[in-house]
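Recap quiz, item 2
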Amino acid sequence: MAKRITIDPITRIEGHLKIEVEIENGKVKDAWSSGTMARGFEALLQGKDPRDAPYIVSRFCGICFSVHQIASARALDAAFGAKVPWGGTLLRNLVMGAEYIYDHMLHFYHLSALDYLDVMAVADYKGKDAGLNKVKDKIVGLVQQKDTFPLTPRYNPDEYSVKDPDTVISAVKHYLDALQMQVKAKNMGTIFGGRAPHYQSIVVGGFTQYPNINQIAQFRSILDELAAFVNEVYIPDVLAFGTGPLLPLAKAGIGGGHLNYLAFGGSEMDEAGNKLLFTPGVIRGLKDPSAIKIDPFDQKKITESVHSSWYKKDTPKHPYEGEQVFDLNREGAYSFVKAPRYDNTPMELGPLARMLVGQDPTLLGLIKDQGVKPGVVARHAARAIETKKIIDALYTWCDALTSAMTKDEFKIHDTDHWEPPKEGEGAGYYEAPRGALGHWIKIKDSKIANYQAVVPSTWMASPRDEKGQRGQYEEALIGVPVPDPENPINVVRVIRSFDPCMACAIHLIDPKTNELRKFIVG
Amino acid sequence: MTRSFDNLSRRDFMKLCGVIAAAVGLSDMFSVEEIAQALEPTSKKAPVIWLEGQDCTGCTNSLISLEDPSPASIILDKISLRYHESIMAAAGTVAEKAKEDTIKEGGYVLVVEGSIPEADDRFCMIGGRPFKEILKEAAQKADVIICAGACSSFGGIPTETPSKGLPVSKLIADKPIINLSTCPVHMDHIVGTILYYLVTHKTPPLDKHKRPKMYFSTYVHDNCRRRAHFDAGEFLKDWNDPTQQEWCLYEKGCKGPDTYSDCPVRRWNNGINFCIDAGAPCQGCSEPGFYPGNSPLYKAV
């Protein structure tokens, strides 16, 4: 008989998420993903000076901080008719690249790794390495003090958990090292961003901080340290786990879900904008990874459904047209998250989607040579692989900025388009760490008339749509083994592999201020 | 004996305590010995419950942004972090039980990040319960409540959203509350305040908005490196002009003249930079009016 269990809160993610699963014969038979916190940011933006938007929407999320800032600034750039000078674009790319590196490392080591490690196995380490023995002493010391928070309590380790003391202790050391590294990555972003989380220097038209050569040198010096860590520790760790102890999990393709992938593409590698770091494209129903069919991406095919969400009933709409009013009592609704669809199809976005659409040779190698299937492990691998791509791109952008600064016409801001236009509309896209992000703005009387954001975690954490299609988190859980309903460790592994960001996912937009004031509450 | 900061010598440990005290702004108030005493592993670390309401997790991110003390030494050596949704290993009922057990024990530091929805409890539910209930329950046996960031201190951005975010002080009246109100919380402010409490078991002297005077007693404007340009009437108009780079940002909307915080002296992220040094106006994120009262952000006040 099916047994229904609820995991609430799902921890080690950004924000508030509840997952319910129905288990039959030791496997997940059905799943429901539910976002349980809402603020209603965009309503606040209505009627405000459009230039406020990038600063305010950055506060959608303080983990993937500033991704909304840049998407918003790009939407404003389009609406204002501003042309961001190459210097401004490079500075934006540099600070966002720093955010990527911090974010991906934090996700693997601090938000996910504890799902795969039996941390307490470090006590059995017998080696002589001084650094590792320090780690052992530290953990054993906590155990002796009978205070191992926040490493415990936890779900019990299972068949997929790594228990070999040598492997575990080196991973725990890297967990601690990576804590330092994510500080450094934020320091690096701060050199031009002003502070982190929530950079201060991305504005419509470009950037506020005029760079100097010393700052670029400082940036590069931290980048060197991060590159060494990513190349020598992070990527080897992910590959060693993925093709070693976690290979059975990887080959089983646990957590694959719909196998539909979407990337908007982006991040300019040259001044003309011809060469992008990430390729746009769509993959539907990936079956044979050796013959991936990639369709072009067309933003007109994006719609958002509120079928199972706590808003007044409505048909799916394109982000420019959406009209949602809260209805916390609506029958059949179970989430604040809406359901974005591409051509009526649920999608996965983020590192795995980007690396598949971009046909990344390292990821394809893992799939072809090692038999890794798209799922939990492939997602972690794709994230590590793209961190390296970002590192390489950051060096290119540092060089490009150095060279741009030698030119007389060097500029960082389109000052001619700083004042808001009377009327205008624009869309801004950005490939954020968790996936493709879009912001849409309409301006009337030089004020914000409508503001919409369609966010990667919204796509993936979405509830069912009109056609009964599950969101990607829900679909990815189907068939996942849960031998012990008291210990649903595989469920949280699958969910965390997506790097959920719930504060981003739920951002409640309404184009008509008046209607919003009348939202329905119980 | 196992000592904090791994296996440092006594001398290095004391030196590090001095560095930490200076970094988070406590060196004028306490001797290195007093700090060291608080940081030395005692038989019991101070239990901490960190709750997240209507938040963006940016304040948690601040907590793990310092070099000294490092995030690992804060989380593992200095405090006993019993409950923190974004950091803890446990999930679901296992996580909730850790919180319940700590509440039963009492005598913990309660940190709150994010606001509390006034419009309807259902705008923030955790473990199937309204966040408001969870907060009230956790507050009862807390020794002190530290509000990390603008949302829990004053309501912040969510105040004027349909969910109508409330600050902690509107719901809890009978407990000492410390507001660390920048958005996000300044990494030095949150770590320094926790350390202050570990050293003294008292709340630091507070201003009328319950902000520690040690961080919030001067206007940003008064300590601003660009102040001379303000006095000389030199205002930045074009971010592209290298000759204007150090000029006053007043005409770009700087709220420094009305904002209490020690940002210009302390700067952010281990002293690397801060808003005004990045050519971006101060947006007054530490003041009760933030955000709606400060809009439009990029126009002269």
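The two ends of chain A are 35 Å apart (CA to CA).
Chain A has a mean pLDDT of 92.
End of item.
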